[in-house]
Amino acid sequence: MVNTDTTEPAGPHITDVLGEARPASEKAKPGRKRRIFTVAAAVALLAGATAVGTTLPDPKSSDAYVALAGEKSAVESDRDSAKSSYESMKSKYDTLQNGIAAREAKVAARETEAGKADAAVKTADAAVKKREEAVTGAEKTKAANTIGDGTWTVGKDIEAGTYRAAADVGSSCYWGIYATGSNGSNIIDNDLPGGGRPSVALSGGQDFKSSRCGKWEKQ
Question: Which of 32, 51, 166, 208 could link 215 by a cystine bridge, Cβ 3.0 to 4.6 Å?
Answer without folding.
Answer: 166
